Amino acid sequence: MATERYSCTLTEAELEVATEQLREDPSTRAIEIKTLRDRLGKYPGLHARTDALFLLRFLRARKFDQEAAFQLVINYYKARRDEGEIFNDLKPSRVKHVFESGYCTALGITDRQGAVVILDKPGSWDIDRFSELDLIKADVLTIEKLIAEERNQVHGFCLLVDYAGFGLSHLARTPPSFAMRLCRLWQDVFPARLKAVHIVNEPSSFGNIFGLFR
């Protein structure tokens, strides 16, 4: 069974955080995984990954609440089905130009609480070369890669958004649906704990219009 092959990679300190903040119990972890796997196996038409490493992402993201973790898995697969624009052909080579622009970067550092820091720089978006959809794809790929690491499942993410260089031309090309899509992915789809969002160099001259996107 997948649970029998699972080997926890968390350090003692990370496991302590998982126990205190996420209600993770090593003695019942295998049971929790099996319970979620069994429930998913009974869901009509769902062909989900059910290995321990994958299911633990969802359990940890919802603090081992079985019902909430189950719903998050369903949301994840529904999003992959319904958001074909984002998830079809989702691979780094597809948005290499976005990463090269510096728009989305995993900084390789953590904040004081241990959350891994992701830097987004909307001002580096070359609106003549790529669309806002490519920005979302780059964000999704970055998060998907980072969430595979168990320590990030426990400590979560810190999003740093630097609006230096972001102008009215960018704002005009950024529909409200862009912000709504990203918010939905973070809150209802990704098995990720978004612990903090910090915004710097906000163009205050945009006033209430920019507040909508915040």
UniProtKB/TrEMBL annotation:
UniProt-listed SUPFAM superfamilies: CRAL/TRIO domain (SSF52087), CRAL/TRIO N-terminal domain (SSF46938)
GO cellular component terms, A-Z: membrane
Example of a GO MF term: phosphatidylinositol bisphosphate binding
Residue intervals of the CRAL-TRIO domain: 91-214
InterPro entries: CRAL-TRIO_dom (IPR001251), CRAL-TRIO_dom_sf (IPR036865), CRAL/TRIO_N_dom (IPR011074), CRAL/TRIO_N_dom_sf (IPR036273)
PROSITE patterns: CRAL_TRIO
Pfam families associated with the record: CRAL_TRIO, CRAL_TRIO_N
Lineage: Eukaryota, Metazoa, Spiralia, Lophotrochozoa, Mollusca
Gene3D superfamilies: CRAL-TRIO lipid binding domain, N-terminal domain of phosphatidylinositol transfer protein sec14p
UniProt protein name: CRAL-TRIO domain-containing protein
Organism: Elysia chlorotica
